[in-house]
Amino acid sequence: MVELDALISKLSTLGFNKVPVEHSAVENVEEWKKALGTVSNGLPENYVLTKTLIYKPKQPKSEPFAPVVIVAKDDTVFNSKALGTLLKFKDMRFASEDVLKDTFQTVKGSVSPFVLGNVSSEIIGNVRVVIDKALVNENNIAFHPLDSLRTVFISGPTLKAYIASIDGLEHVTELDLASLAGAAPAPAAGGSTKVAKKPAATEATVAAKTEESAGSSKLGIEASKETDFSKWYQQVVVRSDMLDYYDVSGCYIVRPTAYFVWQQIQEFFDAGIRALGVRNCYFPMFVSQRALEQEKDHIEGFAPEVAWVTKAGTTDLAVPLAIRPTSETVMYPYFAKWIRSHRDLPLKINQWCSVVRWEFKNPQPFLRTREFLWQEGHCAYMTKDEAYTEVLDILTLYRRIYEELLAVPVIEGVKSEKEKFAGGVATTTVESFIPATGRGIQGGTSHYLGQNFSKMFDVVVEDPEGTSTDRPKIHVHQTSWGLSTRTIGVMVMIHGDDKGLVLPPRVAETQVIIVPCGLTSKHTDEDRRRVTDACLTVEARLKKVGIRADSDLRDNYTPGFKYSHWEVRGVPLRLEIGPKDLEKQSVLSVRRDNFAKASVALDKLESTLEILLHTIQDDMLIRARKAFDERVKLVLKWDDFVPTLNSKCLTMIPWCEREECEDQIKARSTRDAINDEAEDEKEPSMGAKSLCLPHNQPQDPPIIPGQTKCVQCGHNAKRYALFGRSY
Amino acid sequence: MVELDALISKLSTLGFNKVPVEHSAVENVEEWKKALGTVSNGLPENYVLTKTLIYKPKQPKSEPFAPVVIVAKDDTVFNSKALGTLLKFKDMRFASEDVLKDTFQTVKGSVSPFVLGNVSSEIIGNVRVVIDKALVNENNIAFHPLDSLRTVFISGPTLKAYIASIDGLEHVTELDLASLAGAAPAPAAGGSTKVAKKPAATEATVAAKTEESAGSSKLGIEASKETDFSKWYQQVVVRSDMLDYYDVSGCYIVRPTAYFVWQQIQEFFDAGIRALGVRNCYFPMFVSQRALEQEKDHIEGFAPEVAWVTKAGTTDLAVPLAIRPTSETVMYPYFAKWIRSHRDLPLKINQWCSVVRWEFKNPQPFLRTREFLWQEGHCAYMTKDEAYTEVLDILTLYRRIYEELLAVPVIEGVKSEKEKFAGGVATTTVESFIPATGRGIQGGTSHYLGQNFSKMFDVVVEDPEGTSTDRPKIHVHQTSWGLSTRTIGVMVMIHGDDKGLVLPPRVAETQVIIVPCGLTSKHTDEDRRRVTDACLTVEARLKKVGIRADSDLRDNYTPGFKYSHWEVRGVPLRLEIGPKDLEKQSVLSVRRDNFAKASVALDKLESTLEILLHTIQDDMLIRARKAFDERVKLVLKWDDFVPTLNSKCLTMIPWCEREECEDQIKARSTRDAINDEAEDEKEPSMGAKSLCLPHNQPQDPPIIPGQTKCVQCGHNAKRYALFGRSY
Question: EC top class, in one word (chains A, B) (predicted)?
Answer without folding.
Answer: ligase
